[in-house]
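Need tokens for this chain, all 118 residues.
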Amino acid sequence: VQLVESGGGSVQAGGSLRLSCVVSGSTNRDCMGWFRQAQGKEREGVAGIDSDGRTYYSDTVRGRFTLSRDNAKNTLYLQMNSLKPEDTAMYYCAAEARRCLLADQWTYWGQGTQVTVS
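Here are the structure tokens for all 118 residues:
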């Protein structure tokens, strides 16, 4: 199983970025999520999507970030709008969690893509 993120970069506050995560290999793609880790801080859950297509977000990004997926392309997206300096972090996508909650243990992880907001 391989998860490959892309789309990170440097933007000014108020700008937008769209992250992508391409999934390959044999895994249950029904449950997927986005996480981030800022330098010196613990990793935090950002957004997730379950087998019914329901999406959920952390309080810090709700209303600004939108998670979606294209099953035909095996790709998960995270549209990030109204970015703030505190959104600066390495962003990771993940797949498979027992209850599909951000607080769960997730099985598969990508290598991350850096987002910097100034």
